[in-house]
Amino acid sequence: MNVPGNIKNVYFLGIGGIGMSALARYFKYMGKNVAGYDSTRTALTDTLQSEGIDVHYEDDIRKIPSNWNPHETLAVFTPALPDDHNELSWFREKPISLLKRAKVLGMVCNEKDCIAVAGSHGKTTVSTMTANILSKTEAGCGAFLGGISKNFGSNILLPKEDSSWIIAEADEFDRSFLNLFPKIAVVTSTDADHLDIYGRKERMIESFEKFISQIREGGSLVIKKGVVLNVENTEIVKYTYSINDDRADFYPVGLKLSKEDRSYIFDLRTPEGVIPGCKLVYPGLVNVENAVAASAAASLAGAGAGEIRAGLESYRGVVRRFEVRYKDEKSLYIDDYAHHPEELSAMIT
Known about the structure:
It is a single chain. With 349 residues, this protein is of the alpha/beta class. It has ten helices and 17 strands. The strands form four sheets. Strands 8-7-9-6-10-11-12 form a seven-stranded mixed β-sheet, sandwiched between helices. β2, α2 and β3 form a beta-alpha-beta unit. α5 crosses α8. The N and C termini lie far apart (44 Å). 44% of the residues are buried.
């Protein structure tokens, strides 16, 4: 299902969310009239307003544009809104298309060749690294990111008109990723999470397996070696990546830490050969692993060795993802979004 061609107006209920704001920016770029509500004014909502998007902060139906044709309007909402939200209730009573954010993201991404990055951890970093690599290619790409990329200064990379590739985080929360039908899917991990939604880990695993079954014919799955999922889709090719197991299809050879600038240096072994001289200046072994995953996805999307090297070396990170905020000879302050035991372990070690 694609975004209907008659849609001229898009209204966002919860426009200040990281995923919602990226979609708002996308529709503004596509020439639509965009407006929305959020409960809290933030730097991100201020940025949206500076870009010409009308944002208000009161749950007031009088703030909804009255001159928009209902049959040319799409309303997008986040499940975080309470059921008794006045504006949400108003849209439910009107002849206006009202869809969850995940559904709309799927409608946008499924029109193109989508690279969907799934996993309990690492989605934002791998997505942003992949986007940074593909941005070095002639074709380029678009990307919906779950954080503010320091390379792009935004949570969205607007696509070139002739680019077929678009990158999206495939979020397992509320089974949102089942709205995506990617050409390439990455799975970084399947540690138990969102058990308020799934009840038990087995049900979460079932959703991951459903997600990878939706990879398009002729597509690819890139999965961390050691992650066990039942792959029944016989129309795709499965690849593995790792920094610990040299049997993986994508693996960093000769990994070392430079004494000069503390960057990671390695050669990347791929099914097509070795890409020598890769360099990652961003800290953390977990980010080397993320870089291998991103390089695998970008390679399968057509990125060459030079573009992979350039994308990795120029990568500057995501706000609140292993972000070094202060450093001197005695102290180091890192700001990280980690909120899962495995994420905390990876960051600390």
